[in-house]
Amino acid sequence: MAHPIQRNGAFSSTRLSRFFALRTLFASAMALALFLFVSLFLLSSSDFSSSNYADVGSYGFRSTRRSVLAVKSDPLKPRLDQIRKQAEDHKSLALAYASYARKLKLENSKLVRVFADLSRNYTDLMSKPSYRALFEPDSLVIDESVLRQFEKEVKERIKVTRQVISEAKESFDNQLKIQKLKDTIFAVNEQLTKSKKQGAFSSLIAAKSIPKSLHCLAMRLMEERIAHPEKYSDEGKPTPPELEDPKLYHYAIFSDNVIAASVVVNSAVKNAKEPWKHVFHVVTDKMNLGAMQVMFKMRDYNGSHIEVKAVEDYKFLNSSYVPVLRQLESANLQRFYFENKIENATKDTTNMKFRNPKYLSMLNHLRFYLPEMYPKLHRILFLDDDVVVQRDLTGLWKIDMDGKVNGAVETCFGSFHRYAQYMNFSHPLIKEKFNPKACGWAYGMNFFDLDAWRKEKCTEQYHYWQNLNENRTLWKLGTLPPGLITFYSTTKPLDKSWHVLGLGYNPSISMDEIRNAAVVHFNGNMKPWLDIAMNQFRPLWTKHVDYDMEFVQACNFGL
Questions:
Q1: Would you say 278 and 304 are in contact if contact means Cβ atoms under 8 Å apart?
Q2: How many CA atoms lie within 13 A of 392 on its CB side?
Q3: How confident is the model at residue 349 (pLDDT cuts 50, 70, 90)?
Q4: Band of the pLDDT at 199, cuts 50, 70, 90?
Q5: Residue 107: which region, alpha, beta or left (left: phi > 0; alpha: psi -120 to 50)?
Q6: Do 385 and 396 touch, CB atoms closer than 8 A?
């Protein structure tokens, strides 16, 4: 007899097999039903599409079916598409080369026309009536012979296009190199211009700054002046007669640089045959007056006579009389110099130079008032503070001035340093009164006949032109342009050996020319007391510095 557990297991197995059989039968029935439903749907759709009630949607549907069938049935269609794509690609390539050739301006645009024609050939080819049927969307059958002819013409054009591109590549490459070279040159020029401006600005700052040793010397001399006022003050003392004696040799030196002024006097005295006959009129500003007094009181100068005064001591020099002082009070001029605005920005190194306020400094313009400052004198030699005297200068007083006011060395050569470079000859007044080719001359060493000056009324002439130039329309700022104007027809040219210029900017001056010069001039930014001075010329100046003076030693001057 079977065990109860075995009977139950057999029963469960039979039920499970029956369940799976039913499920399989149900799935088959569902699949059959789905097949019948789809078949009926397709039959009804076919009947509907062939009925007489067709509309726009049914037309699009038929077209789609027909084109799909055509693709499937016509093996030439992919080949046609491939040929057409090649033609379109080479057409685009020809257009791209035409555009680039146009940009590079190759061979007077010859290549532009060639590539444009190539591109147009592809368009014309696909527009031919004989090939137009190939590209119609409703075309069911493609004529193989037409396709073969189309392919042949496309390949011919592709061959020509590639050949032209190959031949033009050299021109393109060369032109591209030229263009790159031009771009490089332009970029380098831009960088060079920027560097020049930065260099000029840095040089200007270096040239106009006060070295620490020079500032130290002025402070120590001033300290000495304050500590012992009785030793250096001339207040209450009678004016020495030598200072107004017209029979002596008089010099005018206007400076706020203590060491520079002392070198001018030292060098002149050292080379003078009779130094006791030489009188030096040193004028400075009020701030440096004490230092100047100490500097020139501490030495004997071989019997030479030295007068030290401040600009403020000349009471007639006020804004009601002097145009420069009046212009300094102008709001427009103050904005030009002292306001940091875009419209005041410097555009070039020359403009940058003349925006330095020193060009309206009264010390610079004192040279136009010599007859009034020294009314009892007949002749006077004006010296800048950046010169060195190398010879006895008394020979200048023996020159026949021929009634001229200003004895100066001319600086023009070729087209350089002519009046046209200093004045605005587009202004009708300048154009009318002056010759643009007239030769310029230099300040730095100028011998003035004060009697002829008074006769010609040169100071009045200077005032007239300076007033007209308040808006800087006649010339840029500075003292040389108004000097050229004031002494236009009253300047006597001196031999060039009297005054050699350029030691502050021109390293190519020959040493023979310098040795033969009576006065050498360190005009330019590389002043001999600055670190940027030219080493080959600097000893000409340093040998006249009084290094034995305790204040000079204390300030480590020249180290």
A1: yes
A2: 11
A3: very low
A4: confident
A5: left
A6: no
